[in-house]
Structure formats: C-alpha cells, structure tokens
Amino acid sequence: MRSLNPACKFLGLLVLTFVLAARRDPVWNLVFFALSAAALLSARVRVRTLLLLMLPVALSALGMFFTGYHFSADGSMPVRADAFLAGGSALWNGLLQASRVLAYAGLGLAFALTTDRIRMVKSFQRQFHLPQVFAYGLLAAWGIFPHMAQEFKRTRAAFRARGLHVLPVSPALLAPLLVKSVRWSEELAIAMESKGFAAREPRSEYAPERIRGRDWAFLAVCCAAVPLTAVFL
User: Fold this and answer.
1) Is 144 left (phi over 0), alpha (psi -120 to 50) or beta?
2) Residue 43 CB contacts under 8 Å (≥ 6 apart), including other chains
3) In three state form, how does the secondary structure of the chain look?
C-alpha cells in the first residue's frame, strides 16, 4: 500500500466507499474491513497505533449497532434477514450500520496511515492538476505545524515556571501562538517568493509521481472488478 501512487490509491478507495454505500450487506462491509486491516498490517503499521485508533471506531460501531437495532423499520430489510432468529430485521439493520462504520474507518485508515503527505501533494498536483498555490500552501502549513506544537509547549512551560496554571485552550496560551503563526506565515511567504515559487510559473520536478503498473492494477480491481462483482451478485 505504501508504494502505490497516492492519487490512484485515493481514487480506488473512494470508488470502494461508493460501492459499500450502494450495498446493504454486512458481509461485504466486514470483508472490506478485514482486507483494510490486512493491508495495514502488511504495510507494517504499528499494532499499538492501530488499536488506539480503532478504539473510538469500535465504540462508534457499537453505538450504531444498538441504534440500528432499536430503530429499524419493519419490511425494509432484505429477505435473508429472516435467517437471524434473534431480532429479525432489527438485528440485520444493527449489523449493517455497525459494519459500515468499521468498513469506512478501515478504508480511511488504510489511506491515512500508508500515504506520505509529501507524495500525496505531489501526486495530486500531477495527476489531479492541483494548482501550485494550493500544493505549496499545504506543504508550508505542514511544515509549520511542528513549530506550533513546540511553541505551545514552551508557552505552557513558561506559565508553569511563573506558578500560573492555564487551561490548554486558554486565550493566554493561544494568543501568542496565533501571533507567532501569522509572523511565520508571512516570513515563509516572503521566502517562497524570493526563491521563485510563483503561483503560475511552470516548474520542473526532482522526483515526479508517476503511475506504474501496480497502480493500474489497483485501479482495475477497485474501479472495475469490485463494482462489477457487486452488480452481478
């Protein structure tokens, strides 16, 4: 998953979300969730990180299960829902809602945890024709975020050194951070203009993101094979 072109990966996973939205089948949702989990593990995502991220997802799925179970409409579920002896269509509706949460979360995590943000911006700029001004803006913003977190910690430590205890969302903490963020953004904009990063000037790329054979194969599976299978089944 990490070696795939980010634009192709985004497009393929987006098509899969539409396929899942068009089908009312918990089995499909659980299969896609299992495939997403397998892709994350094969991409060497830390199990501890994955479990921490899945904890709120599991709680949301549990809540959606009981919501679908208690507020289901009779007669709106498939005929095979009668195979469930406990609850009938209510149980089917609860499983459907809970499995959708798991499936969508799995596909989202499969993209977020296996995609490099720099490669993603470069790929969107090349394959989706993202304007340069937005691409440079995203890269600049991601470069400022670590400095903002470090400055937040420094300001909070300065208050503690003076014996003052402030909340994490206190204006006393956020106001200096806002002022410094504006100053950083102005300095970064001036630096980019001085280096020739104009909005409409054509530029060459050191390592352009290209679409390879594995990317076409991934798109063929996600955009053709899976939708056709869903239609004929």
Assistant:
1) alpha
2) 1, 2, 113, 114
3) CCCCCHHHHHHHHHHHHHHHHHCCCHHHHHHHHHHHHHHHHHCCCCHHHHHHHHHHHHHHHHHHHHHHHHCCCCCCCCHHHHHCCCCCHHHHHHHHHHHHHHHHHHHHHHHHCCCCHHHHHHHHHHHCCCCHHHHHHHHHHHHHHHHHHHHHHHHHHHHHHCCCCCCCCCHHHHHHHHHHHHHHHHHHHHHHHHCCCCCCCCCCCCCCCCCCHHHHHHHHHHHHHHHHHHHHC
Q: What is the pLDDT of residues 184-196, one digit of tens each?
A: 888 887 877 777 7
Q: Which residue in this structure is represented by tokens 């003076």? A: 162
Picking from 104, 73, 112, the residue whose alpha carbon sits closest to that of residue 90 is 73
pLDDT digits (tens, 9 = 90+) for 10-43: 999 999 999 998 888 888 999 999 999 999 999 8
Q: In the structure encoding, which two tokens stand for residue 163, read together?
A: 């014996």
